[in-house]
Design goal:
Elements (H helix, E strand, L loop, with lengths): L1 E5 L4 H12 L4 E6 L11 H5 L12 H5 L4 E4 L3 H14 L2 E4 L6 H10 L4 E4 L5 H17 L4 E8 L9 H13 L4 H4 E2 L14 E7 L5 E8 L4 E8 L3 H14 L5 E3 L1 H4 L5
The protein binds NADP nicotinamide-adenine-dinucleotide phosphate.
């Protein structure tokens, strides 16, 4: 499988380049960054601190996508439209890891998925997606009487709260209970002088140091507590998940898929 990495000079792009170089079944076919970047025309292996790959960093989407079987995109929402248009033009499968997309951009992904196969995942970590599935099962079998609280911790630079992954966990639990998360989520108890309502899902966020990402889900009845916990210690987990998605996607029919499809939860 030949992989083009979009955003190859960023934190995630570098992790994906390393994952591809270390893999058995994948090889790099292209590497894209922004116009004017200091690393243009440099071997992307040098950028990632690994061996030379023979693939030079470019800002030309046509060059980056040439010969690719699958594109892995970890850029920024502002770059998403042109990247998506190029994948459609060259009919290349796409793993979209870039987060923070607008509603309109999600609609564009769905529209493009009529022409090319796409995997979109807010969190590409295999462990997080298995934790989400476990949370869904716990919600199903424990029932809505169990109080549910989601606690997440991230590094001091993270600006949004709660994390997209905490929301993913909450959505899975709410959906299993036949509820809309926005109707039962509680994000702030400080301004609320009231006891807990039945069926609420509470969220708490910690921002400290260099924590890569921790998520816990607590289900409590009057007499029992069930806890699920996931901890990412390195961002390579997201790159490994993206690569797994890419190899699952290669040769698939057109359509919009998610990590649950990649991991076989929907079969
Ligand atoms: N789905 C997941 O599991 C997951 C996990 C972690 C992060 N993310 C998301 O992945 C994205 C990237 O995260 P990051 O931490 O790697 O950010 P980052 O370090 O800022 O990397 C973004 C990269 O994209 C490049 N870029 C920006 N605009 C571009 C354009 N128009 N064309 C080509 N390249 C462009 C940037 O170039 P410069 O080097 O010039 O800035 C940079 O190399 C974010 O949306 C983040 O939220 C997703």
């Amino acid at each position: 499988m030949r992989v083009a990495v979009l955003g190859c000079t960023g934190r995630m792009g570098i992790a994906v380049v390393k994952a591809v170089v270390d893999s058995r079944g994948a090889e790099l076919s292209g590497a894209l960054t922004q116009p004017g970047h200091a690393m243009l025309s440099v071997d992307v292996g040098v950028v990632a601190g690994v061996a030379n790959t023979g693939i030079l960093v470019t800002s030309d989407l046509g060059v980056a996508l040439d010969g690719a079987d699958v594109v892995i995109d970890f850029t920024l929402p502002a770059a998403m439209q042109s990247n998506l248009a190029a994948c459609r033009k060259y009919k290349v499968a796409l793993v979209m890891g870039t987060t923070g997309l607008s509603e309109g951009q999600h609609a564009m992904l769905a529209e493009a998925a009529a022409e090319i196969p796409i995997v979109y995942g807010r969190n590409m970590s295999v462990g997080v997606n298995v934790t989400t599935e476990l949370a869904r099962l716990a919600a199903r079998y424990l029932g809505a009487d169990w109080d549910t609280e989601i606690v997440e911790a991230h590094h001091r630079h993270k600006v949004d709260a709660p994390s997209g992954t905490a929301l993913q966990l909450g959505e899975a639990i709410a959906k299993e209970r036949g509820a809309d998360l926005s109707a039962i989520a509680v994000y702030d108890r400080a301004n609320k002088s009231a006891a807990r309502n039945r069926g609420e899902i509470g969220f708490s966020s910690i921002r400290a140091g260099s924590i890569v990402g921790e998520h816990g889900v607590l289900f409590a009845s009057d007499t029992e507590i069930v806890e699920l916990r996931h901890q990412a210690t390195d961002r390579s987990v997201f790159a490994q998940g993206a690569l797994r998605a890419a190899s699952w996607l290669e040769g698939r029919p057109v359509g919009l898929y998610g990590m649950p499809d990649v991991l076989g939860f929907n079969t």
